[in-house]
Amino acid sequence: MRILIVDDEPNIRELMRRYLGLDGIESDCAENGLSAQRMLSEEHYDACLVDLKMPGMDGLSLIKWIRSEGFRTPIIMISAHGEISDAVTALKEGAQDYIVKPFQLDELQARLRAVVRRSSRSKETTTTAKMISTSGMPPSAP
User: Fold this and answer.
1) Order of strands, sheet of 2-6, starting from the edge strand that comes earlier in the sequence
2) Distances (CA, A) of 17 to 2, 27, 38, 52
3) 6-23, pLDDT tens digit by residue?
4) DSSP string, 50-70
5) pTM of the model
6) Is the CB of residue 38 less than 8 Å from the CB of residue 61?
7) Region 2-135: CATH code
């Protein structure tokens, strides 16, 4: 699994990168939304961890851009501000989950794996439905 961590706090980025790396999760880091846009345009990521409050392009603007560009990458919004309205807005804009700082790293890891797993199932279901609609028959088992 390869993810993109987007946070303006270098210590937070590095802590998440190192911890997730212990579990074999590769990650790249971006310090702001603009850097994240460039990286998402050049690389494939299985998920994104996006901080809400960042200078320049904030996390909500980045989520809107990701969705407007057609990326289906699962997104977990991260925020130091536990406002329900922020969580609701992030979810409406296309985030799959929302976690409040400070968080336990094992909780972040579990949530990350869950959104990637759900995304994989969704892609498999969509592929199967397309195959059925095209051929009129479900794919045959090996």
Assistant:
1) 26-30, 2-6, 47-51, 75-79, 97-100
2) 11, 6, 19, 18
3) 999 999 999 999 999 999
4) EES--SSS-HHHHHHHHHHTT
5) 0.83
6) no
7) 3.40.50.2300
